Amino acid sequence: MTNLVEVTEERPIPSTGTYNPSRIMLYGVRLVRLQLQTESVVCIPLNNARRLALIYGFCYQGHCYSLPEPVIVLVNGPGVEAQGCGWDPAHYRCWEVDKLSHTIQLQAQSDTFEELILNRNINANKQPVAYSIAHQMSHRGGKLTE
Question: Whole-model pTM?
């Protein structure tokens, strides 16, 4: 994953209300279906209060950012037409969220079961950080004697 890219071609439309330093504006589209090669999974919200959205960028503290790759998050409501930051309101929606609000991010990866389940979880292919605790325990935290 690469670093965020700040979009400077257009600033957000200023809010006429009160300033909220906790506000984040998310820009994306409502997620309707996930495509997996020849099959797709339909994402139907259980109610209109919460739904999945594919987020491409955000605005925070008057700066607009594009994400290096879109993320799937759970948002409140259907969103409104995008305003500011260069997002086309005909194609993108906008959600106002508080930075301390809780959500869920889904990471969608498409590969074989062998790669996603076996190769990533069997001991031979674990990341070095997985061995850190075992290494510390085997050396008794650096103590030479008990």
Answer: 0.69
